[in-house]
Amino acid sequence: MQELIELLQNPNARWVLIGSILLGFASGLIGSFVLLKKQSLIGDAMAHAALPGICIAYLIYGVKSTPLFLLGAAVSGLIATYLIQAIVNHSRIKTDASIGVVLSVSFGIGIVLLTYITRHSGGNQAGLDDFIFGQAAAMVRSDVQMIAVGSLLIILLTSLLFKEFKISTFDPQYAKGLGLPVKGLNAILMVLVISMVVIGIQMVGVVLMVALLITPPLAARYWTDRLEWMGFISGLIGAVSGLIGTAISTMGDGLPTGPLIVLTASSIFILSLLFGLRKGLLIKVVQRI
Amino acid sequence: MTYGAWIILTGVLVGVTCGITGALLVLRKMAMIADAISHTVLLGIVLAFLVTQSLNGLPMLIGAGAVGILTAILVQWLDSSGVQSGAAIGVVFTSLFALGVVMLSFIGDGVHLDVEHALMGEIAYVPWDTWTYAGINLGPKAVWMLGGVFILNLTIILLFFKEFKVSTFDPQLAASLGIPILFLHYLLMGMVSFSTVASFDSVGAILVVAMLIVPGATAYLLTDHFGWMIALSAIIGALASIIGYGFAVWLDVSIAGSMAVSCGLLFTLAFFLSPKHGVVSKWWKRKSFRKSMATS
C-alpha cells in the first residue's frame, strides 16, 4: 500500500498509469470487433511482424525515435496482413498455416535484425529488446503521451463509427443495402487495429500484445449479449488490466509489464468464465438444477 | 567433431524432428495449436525447474509434455463451450506463456534460464554443454535429447502411419474403422511438446514455431503424397538449418533467427516455383492453355 501511494505521488508514474488505462480501454473496445470478425490470430501475426519493422526503422534512421518505430511497425504489420491473405489466395495453404508461416518467419527476421543491431551498431543502447515484452519503466514522458493520445483517438473514432462497424460486421449485405461503404469501413477498422497493436507494443510487447485484443472481449462476452455493452465492458476490463499490470511492474524492478497486464486480464477472464451472468459456468449449473 | 559441426548437427536434428511432426500439423490444420503449445511449453520447463532445481532432460520433457497436453485440452474445451477456435487458442497461450515469463523473471540470475534464452535459444552454447558418463565425454546434451525425441517421433509416425493418414484425410472413415482419433490427436500434441522442449535450448520457444510449421507448409506445396510430404518436410527443415547457420556466421547474427528466415526463403521459393502448385507454374499453365485455345 505504502508503495502504491508513493507510486501515485510520482508524476511520471502517474502518466504511465493513465496511459495504461487508456491503452487497455482502447484495445478492449476495438478487440470486440477483432473477435467478431474472427481475426484474433491475424492480430497475433501483426504484432509479431511489428518487430522487424521497428528494427528496419532503426537501421534506416539510426536513432531511437518512437514515431519512426511506430511507422515501421505499422508498415510491416500491414505487409504481414497482406501476405497472409496472398498466400491463402494464391496457393493451397490454409489460413492457419499461412498465419503461422508469416508470424514465425517475420519474428525470425526481427530477431536476426535485432542481433545485427546489437552486435554491429554499438551495444544495447537502442533498447529495442524492450519491445519484445514491453517495459513501462523504460518509457519516457513523450512515449506515454503518445500512447495516451493515440488510445484516445482510437476510442473516439471507434465510438463514432460504432453503429456502422456493427452493421457491416454482422450483416454486410444489409449494410450494403443501406448504402454503407462496407469495404471502406473494413479498411478503417483494419487501420485502427494496426494502430492499436503498434501503440500497444511499447507497453505490452510484440509477443503478448494480441492478448489485450482477445481476452477482454472474450471475458465481456460472459456478461452481456449486446455489442454496445460488450465493447464498453471489454474496454473496462482492458483498462483495469492495464492499470494493475503496470502498477505491479513499476513497483517491482525488472518485472516485464506485458506479461503482468496479460495475467491480470486472464484472471478476469477466468472469473467471468466461472461467474459471468451470461453463459458463465456457475449460472449454467444453477439453471440445470 | 569441431565446434561448427556440432552446431550444424544440432540444427539439422531440430529441422528433422520438427519437420516430420510439422508435416502432420499442416495437413491436419493444426498449425496455430502448435504455435500455442510451443509458447506454453515454457511454463512446463519453468515448473520442472522449480520442482527439481535443475535443468535435467527428463523432468523438463515431462513438464513440457504435461503443459502441452493441458494447452490442447483447454483449447478444445473452450472451443466446444462456444468460444471461436482462434480466440480460444489466443487466450490459452497468452495466459500460460505470460505466467511462464513472470515465473521465469522470479528465478535468480545465476541460472542458465532467462527470458532471452527462452525466446531465441542459444545454439552457440550447445557444443559446450556436454554429457559426461563414467569419465567419457559423450558430446552435447542437446544432441542426445534431440536424437532421442527424433527417434521417438519417427517411431510413433511409422507405427501409426496408416492411422494418421486415414484420420487426416477422412476423419469419418477413420471413425467408422474404429481408429482412436482423439488418442491420435493428443499423441500428436505430445509429439509437438517433446519436439519443442528438445529444440528449446537451441532455437527457443518462438522460433521453434518456424521450424514446426514452415517446412511442413513448404512440403505441402511440393507434393501430394502423404509419405513423401513427411520426408520432404524433414529434408527442408534440415536444409534450412544448414543455410541458416551459413547466413548467421557470415553476418554475425542470431543462428536461430536466421534458421527461421531460411525456412521463409525456402517457402517463398516453393510458393513461386513449385512444379505443380507454384504461382509461376500455374500462371504458365494458364497462359499456354489460353494460347492453345486461341490457336484451335
Write up what this structure looks like.
The complex is a heterodimer of chains A (289) and B (296). With 289 residues, chain A is an all-alpha fold. Chain A has one domain (2-288): ABC transporter involved in vitamin B12 uptake, BtuC. In chain A, 81% of the residues lie in helices and 0% in strands. Chain A is built from 14 helices and no strands. Chain A has helices at residues 2-9, 11-36, 40-61, 66-90, 95-120, 130-133, 141-160, 162-170, 172-177, 182-204, 209-220, 227-251, 257-275, 281-288. In chain A, α2 (11-36) packs antiparallel against α12 (227-251) and α3 (40-61) packs antiparallel against α11 (209-220). Chain A is globular and about 65 Å long. Chain B is mainly α and 296 residues long. Chain B has a single domain (3-129, 138-295), classed as ABC transporter involved in vitamin B12 uptake, BtuC (Orthogonal Bundle), CATH 1.10.3470. Chain B has 12 helices and 2 strands; from the N terminus they run αααααββααααααα. Chain B has a two-stranded antiparallel ribbon. In chain B, a hairpin with a 2-residue loop joins β1 (130-133) and β2. In chain B, α2 (31-52) crosses α3 (57-80), α2 (31-52) crosses α9 (181-222) and α10 (226-251) crosses α11 (255-273). Chain B is globular, with a radius of gyration of 20 Å. Chains A and B meet through α3, α5, α11 and α13 of A and α2, α4, α5, α9 and α11 of B.
Average pLDDT of chain A: 87
How would you classify the quaternary structure?
heterodimer
Tally of helical runs of chain A: 14
Number of DSSP helical runs of chain B: 12
Per CATH, the class of chain B reads Mainly Alpha
Whole-number tally of structural domains of chain B: 1
* CATH architecture identity of chain B: Orthogonal Bundle
What is the number of beta strands of chain A?
A: 0
What is CATH's topology name of chain A? Answer: ABC transporter involved in vitamin B12 uptake, BtuC
Give the CA-CA distance, first to last residue of chain A: 43 Å
- CATH architecture classification of chain A: Orthogonal Bundle
Question: Helical content of chain B, roughly?
Answer: over 70%
Principal-axes shape call of chain B: globular
Give the end-to-end Cα distance of chain B, rounded to a whole number of Å.
64 Å
Sheet with the most strands, sense and barrel status of chain B = 2 strands, antiparallel
CATH homolog superfamily of chain A: ABC transporter involved in vitamin B12 uptake, BtuC
- Briefly note the structural class of the backbone of chain B: mainly alpha
Give the total of beta strands of chain B: 2
